[in-house]
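Chain X:
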Amino acid sequence: MGQKHLVLLTCFWVLSCALLLHASSDGLLRIDLNKKRLNKNAWTAAKVARQESHLRRFVGSQQSLGASSDDIVPLDNYLDTMYFGEIGIGTPAQNFSVIFDTGSSNLWVPSSKCYFSIACYLHHRYKSAKSRTYKKNGETCTITYGSGQIAGFFSEDNVLVGDLVVKNQKFIETTRETSPTFIIGKFDGILGLGYPEISVGGAPPIWQSMKEQKLIAKDVFSFWLNRDPDASAGGELVFGGVDPKHYKGSHTYVPVTRKGYWQFDMGDLLIGGHSTGYCAGGCAAIVDSGTSLLAGPTTIVAQVNHAIGAEGIISTECKEVVREYGEMIIQLLIAETSPQKVCTQIGLCVFDGTHSVSNPIESVVEKQKRGSDLFCTACEMAVVWIQNQLRENKTKELILNYANQLCERLPSPNGESTVDCNQISKMPNLAFTIANKTFTLTPEQYIVKLEQAGQTICISGFMAFDIPPPRGPLWILGDVFMGAYHTVFDFGENRIGFAKSA
């Protein structure tokens, strides 16, 4: 993907947080937080930041607590696109706002030794000289994101999470932050909650240190993300258990299939109860608190956009494939040609024995820069769309017209698609199939509302993001999904649980 450049706004959004600290009757520590409503400019800045610093990483990445076994970290909700909370590092504790990110595994904050990056001067910086428990490490490291890098060195110190003290935690002091993302971000750093397999420098994620130091009774942490724009609480992250007030019924668990990210096997996505086809045989999925939207294969996102009336980019190449090869695709499918081989027989793709390829499949937007590669991708998408319509015994004319409409619904280059806010009540429910159960999202849950000049703009919660086999096809279930479903990350049993949020 190409570099994106953020246009710095003349005014930065200031999120005022009134922190009211109190101990509740169940012994859990809570912080009440305030938040502000969404607006278009802040959404754009936050969205680009999240895309560049989180989504793109997938392309490049290959003792008990007395009466209470839970430890809660309250989360602030920054414009419904970013959830962060406060931790302390050192003795006495130096406070930092961090994103709790299940899609990465390192903890990093700006260092007092960061002299040449503007981002460091706009955020809290860790001062090792002021901590009695600091231990020098010195190993250097770099983490690359879509629009820049952070670089620095490892140190060790005590980390305060809620009222837990994790001793001698290895973390990164950044001395260089090259992306504008870190300048405008409301957060100082990131606290990764992924598996150690993707941790830079072999630093244990914070939950592993908690487990080894026997700080939690249960080897789990859980997220409740509040998607109510008018509510004061942004959400809660609970270590060592779950808060029953934040979910309904029981959790459905699925095993982690690949450690690194919290990855599991997912089935089909249904639109109004009907299969979209592409993941009918199964797809991989990751639950990522560091991604705002739902990211998935362009083939399915185009179908979603069509079903909800979202407006995206008109792809000339896609429509050309339908116009020139649509009837041939229909004939080959009727003749029971393997869908994986159709585009090869037409001559738009090369078949490697398992699937059609030209080059590793990228997003359709990216492929527009790669000439003929887009025709292969467009053909593969058209095969899925046409096959679905053939199952419903549609006529050739209706099938080709449908495929042509989906071409027009391909997502725009910046990943967002707009919808008519007045039509939300008429949009279909969408459902993910997980562990043979359906997890439904209503239009009110998958549509994001923004404020601009006193008017409301509605954005689809789905964006296209293609991961090539064998790692993909892959879904990234971000905050839109986690807001609807309370999520348990069980690192003791290596499984993930979902239940309706309360």
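Chain Y:
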Amino acid sequence: MDHTSELEKINVGGNENGKSETEKTYSEVESRHSPFARQAFISTGAFMLSFGAGATAGFSSILIPQLKHDMKNHNFSTEMESWVAAMASLALLFGNMISGYLMEKMGRRASQILLSVFYIGGWTIIGFAGNIHLILFGRFITGFCQGWLGPLGPVFVGEISSPAYRGLFLAGLSLSIASGVFMSHLFGTFLHWSHASFLCGAFPLFGCIILYFAPESPAWLASKNEIDRCIKAFQWYRGTSAAMKMELDKMIEDQTKKKDVQSKLKTLTVNIKKPEFWKPLCIMIVFFIVTQLSGINVVCAYATDIMEVIIGNNSNTYAAMLAIDILRVIALVSACILLRRKGRRPLALFSGVFTTCSLILLAIYLYMLEKRIIRHISPIISLSLMAIYVFVSNLGISLLPWNMVGELFATETKGLGSGISVMMTSVAFFGTIKTAPAMFKSFGHHGTYLFYGISTLFGTIFLYFYLPETRGKTLLQIAEEFRYGDKGRKKETTELTSV
């Protein structure tokens, strides 16, 4: 098909009323709802799936203590405990492997609907499980879906949202994960783990229902040369303003040209050589690994055990866990607000510095307790340090990689780039979760937190030199800047001015 002639029909083709085909199609898509409301509604479907991802990450905190109680006459070893927590993170890698392929083959919307079905099945298996093997199998399936969703959710939300709202909606994904952690802990505090799992399965069910009514991602439709559907979907999500028309025309032109190039080369080697691919790939791999090595997901997975050490009072363990969960949600709500005002880079650096400081201070305090330099544990001090750590890490280090993976990659390499970078975080995720019990036992909590603090410090130094700012920029502008550096900004500005 001649992409150039197709694009000319869309941009300059007239009709009997003197209107272009684009203008005619724009006029056909009317709604009483604003683009923001439509983007928010469909993003809620992705948020519900992210609730399920958060519940998967946090479920082991309430599952392990109940299993220890249920299996008190049997040996529930440290190794078994680590597998119950880490089984889901092991499956992340396999979910990542298929995510990029399915989002490119099936589309973003259809892939999320299929994912929802598997997610519901995984939670159902856990709910009906009568032995540890079925529990591990269910945990594997839910972890598989969590990995599947990792690249998919940010890509979909990033492509359907306007630049002004993209940061807010992408931050909403991380907020949903934190809320899912809190809800799984809340369910497990008052209910048996089997009943809690059924409630967790309701999140992907609601997400599936919402996404059923969603149009497909306009960028994906353009990449498949489905121009008419692309225009209608873009207008439904983004509206019909002059600025949106300009972005739509530029996106279609960019995607059709890129499709011609890809059809001739079709090799990963070509993408690796593109600076708009390998530069964001390196940044995202490091950023994701730093997130895991900061230890924030270890706190989610082993919250009850960690709280026992932090406060030294078993009777208040669950209350402290829920308080930390609420603080995590508050931090992410604050981050959603700050992202629109301060941007990604300042939050990342602020979060990295203070996460490092809080971890090292917590490690020093716990070391002083162990060496009896301090005679009695003060729950106020230890819990305050843990609270500061959770709050500042969720302002940036924990939030931003998932936010930015939907922004940094060009559309034609988004599935590949996001898939590779999230696969790397899955490896790091499994490594930190699986090794945490052994590290706590061998090095103590103070040694483990010191390791996480030093890792975060080195990661923050890297981000200071290489992390770009993406606030308020279109996906095309971001790709141009990686491709041409500072010249990309001038090139993009000149092109948009001349349109």
